[in-house]
Amino acid sequence: MPNNRSSTLFxxxxxxxxxxxxxxxxxxxxxxxxxxxxxxxxFMLAGLLLLPFWWSRRPNFRAVCxxxxxxxxxxxFQTFILYGLFYLGMTLIPGALAAMVIGASPxxxxxxxxxxxxxxxxxxxxxxxxxxGIIGVAVLSLSRQPWGSATGLAELAGIGILLLANVAxxxxxxxxxxxxxxxxxxxxxxxxxxxxGLGLLLLSLLLEVQPSQPLPWSYYAALGWLAFLSAxxxxxxxxxxxxxxxRVSELNLWKFLIPVCGALLSxxxxxxxxxxxxxxxxxLCIAAAIVIFNLPGLRRFGARL
Length: 305
Prior knowledge:
Elements: H1 2-20, H2 22-29, H3 35-49, H4 51-54, H5 61-66, H6 68-90, H7 95-102, H8 105-116, H9 124-143, H10 150-178, H11 185-207, H12 217-241, H13 248-252, H14 257-269, H15 277-304
Helix pairs in contact: 1-12, 1-14, 2-7, 2-12, 3-6, 3-11, 3-12, 6-10, 6-11, 7-10, 7-14, 8-10, 9-15, 11-12
């Protein structure tokens, strides 16, 4: 059991570090393509990248049909809605700010898990950390001074869209954890990524103008990296969500690494972005809330090692 917990910790941290690199890649790709087209291409490619890893042990047709509703539900929440909103929100706000708003997803997941999962209740201690996280989001929102310009209003809308994306992602996590089906987690991830990506690509054909010029190498580099990290990180996460004794809320708390690393990478690699006082204070509130929320789980985890 200690080795299992150690591997859970290692894999959770690895998945979160992979996800933290997404904000820079998304910002690069959105310079050349619409949000739904770029997202659709990314997730369809990610689903195909996983095909060699489950093809030899693929489930039979009857098993897949029996779980079709679950696969479609996870694809809807975990890819189509979550990343449709995520990419749309990323067109409105800087990458570092997006990293911190998305970083609040463990708090959203904890609230929903409290009502949707047995044995995953929200304590007063965790409730206090949620309040601190809400304060952080409020500081972030007000720091953009949305009343002063159309740009500020757009950024406020972007924050709201990303918060809705957090809700969709939390529901997707709960669906995976609640359905302990016999389907291979890698197959499940591959299928839901491809289906969700296909839906986003079809949506882009209806709503977006398609590029008429050849796209630069930086677009394809960003697309390739994002597809790889999606295939790897989501497969790791699905495996962890199905491990016995792993709680949805406590596993998602490791995502506190995403906003910090994502913001730092955005400031370092995107020349148009840089830190300023009030957004940093809001980010610190969110980061502190997630760490405080995580402390009881960390103490229990450390005591078991």
